[in-house]
Amino acid sequence: MRVLVAPQEFKESLTAEEAAAAIASGLAQARPEWTVEELPLSDGGPGFLAALARATQGRARSVATRDALGRARTAQVLDIAETGTCALESAMANGLALIALGHRDPLRASTEGVGELIAAALEGGPSRIVVGVGGSATSDGGSGMARALGARFRDEAGRDLPAGAAALADLARIDWSPPRSLAGMEVLVASDVTNPLVGPRGAAAVFGPQKGASAADVEVIEAALQRYAAVVERSLGVALADMLGAGAAGGLAGGLVAFLGGRIMSGFDVVAEAVGLAERLRGADLVVTGEGRFDGQSGQGKTVGRMREMAAERRIPCVVLAGRAEGASGDVRTLAELEPDREASMRNAAALLRELAGRWARSAGV
Asked: At 84, which helix (H) or strand (E)?
């Protein structure tokens, strides 16, 4: 029995590497006769850069940047010389996991640190930049990212607006002249969702609560992004409001399209191609994937949903091990079965995931 263990990160709990190692350990202990192969994955969020680094001859560079609250931190960009590509993971700057629960501020959180990562990427002279988006603490439509690269966001009186989503409600004009270093640059936006910027499926309504936004905050952010979309269309000629995928990472994906001419694509596909996933699946008898929360969004371009699809196409059994689940079927098992308390489950996720994998393997009829 050859088993491919291919999870993504368990948000705010385990990296994809840690999750894969825990699952593999549990399987190996329960079924030592199985051959278990670990393949940690990402769909553009946390773990994106690590997945690409494992699959390429890229060289990581440390760069200074800021998190969503403006605090200094160090992140990395990955130079892949053979393809002239520089890859970056936006969550290394604006990631939700970088901010403690009581300090999250969805109205003022900014993507300026992502713009600083892009500026650092440009220093290497690439012909293409790949930006993994996802796992963000921000809802500013990528305005902070553009500000870090020279854009000015002004109110009716011509005053510069402060950072963050809420301030965009007063946006009247955008002044933007792309840096020369962006001339001819191909910018790919690796995303895991297709949500538009605004509306009932938009960045505020769907993702705002995940970033700590209250119901009132969601209304503020929605109104601000509506204003932002209108001014972007008037100033830059790019219609973001209903663009599929523009709402990813609190609208960062849309900002990358509007200001950098980015093209939104499946983050899972970017990683799958880099790691040779189709080849790795050949000969596999079983696939085990996983994520922190399995729900309706899992089947909309995220790692777990795409892994299930690829396994089904090849008629390979696939099991999902998740922290929590909504609407789970028989092939989905959760840490909640072992530890109902969510916080305790997250604190002990590695040990629980190892135990869950072992229990499943011992009872599996494969």
From this structure: none
**Structural domains of the chain ordered from first start:** 2-39+285-363 (3.40.50.10350), 48-268 (3.90.1510.10)
- Taking the C-alpha atoms of residue 17 and residue 15, their distance in angstroms, rounded to an integer, is 5
CA distance 254 to 245: 7
Phi, psi of 224 (to 5 degrees): -65, -40
The bridge status of strand 318-325 relative to strand 286-294 is: parallel
Other beta carbons within 10 Å of 177: 9
Q: Which residue has the tokens 């994520």?
A: 291
What are the pLDDT digits (tens) for 142-160? 999 999 999 999 999 999 9
| Cβ contact 58:356 at 8 Å | no
Task: Measure the N-to-C terminal CA separation of the chain; round to a whole number of Å.
Answer: 8
Mean pLDDT, range 196-216, rounded to an integer: 96
pLDDT-derived band at 365 (thresholds 50, 70, 90) equals low
**Model-wide pTM > 0.85:** yes
The whole-angstrom separation of Cα 236 and Cα 230 is: 10
From residue 11, alpha-carbon distances to 21, 139, 238, 288 in Å are 16, 18, 32, 18
**pLDDT at residue 298 tops 80:** no
* Rounded-to-integer distance, Cα 218 and Cα 298, Å: 22
Q: Which two tokens stand for residue 271?
A: 């990683």
Using a 10 angstrom Cβ sphere, with 0-12 exposed, 13-18 middle and 19 or more buried, the burial of residue 127 is exposed
Q: How confident is the model at residue 65 (pLDDT cuts 50, 70, 90)?
A: very high
319: nearest Cα among 290, 298, 288, 294: 288
